């Protein structure tokens, strides 16, 4: 299985990017991982919230295939603790899917078309995090999940 993370807009903070790079490297020891950045939409000041979500949705859907399992990072999604999340990852790997795609949407969330394609929603917290930081949190939790599955000492129970 491959895990892909899709996000809108590049990370501007160099320290944050260095941490993301570090966890991507760590994660690559366990699974094939892809991180795909969708460029920010130009002239968003001229777009309504709905138009911006629609344009971002079209870009997101252009990056996935019909066989991908789409998981949206959404404030209304299911919440797991880290051990439950590792079990979720194991179940997805056992299901035979080729690619599990996590998507971090834009500032207004996802278009209806993206919601129609998703298989599930995941919330990392009831709190709101910046779109920059959530990338690090997702990749770190993926890494943590795989260390739990391998009974490695990174996660303390």
From TrEMBL:
S-adenosyl-L-methionine binds at residues 73, 105, 124-129. GO terms for cellular component: cytoplasm. Its EC number is 2.1.1.177. Pfam families: SPOUT_MTase. HAMAP family: 23SrRNA_methyltr_H (MF_00658). Belongs to the RNA methyltransferase RlmH family. Specifically methylates the pseudouridine at position 1915 (m3Psi1915) in 23S rRNA. This is Ribosomal RNA large subunit methyltransferase H. It comes from Ichthyenterobacterium magnum.
């Amino acid at each position: 299985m491959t895990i892909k993370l899709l996000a809108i807009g590049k990370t501007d903070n160099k320290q944050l990017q260095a941490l993301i790079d570090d966890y991507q490297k760590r994660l690559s020891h366990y699974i094939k991982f892809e991180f795909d950045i969708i460029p920010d939409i130009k002239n968003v000041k001229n777009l309504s919230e709905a138009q911006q979500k629609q344009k971002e949705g079209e870009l997101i859907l252009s990056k996935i295939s019909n066989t991908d399992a789409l998981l949206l990072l959404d404030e209304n999604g299911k919440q797991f603790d880290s051990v439950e999340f590792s079990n979720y990852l194991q179940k997805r790997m056992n299901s035979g899917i080729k690619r599990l795609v996590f998507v971090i949407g834009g500032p207004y969330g996802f278009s209806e078309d993206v919601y129609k394609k998703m298989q599930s929603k995941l919330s990392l917290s009831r709190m709101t995090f910046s779109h920059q930081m959530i990338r690090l949190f997702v990749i770190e939790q993926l890494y943590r999940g795989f260390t739990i599955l391998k009974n490695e000492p990174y996660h303390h129970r």
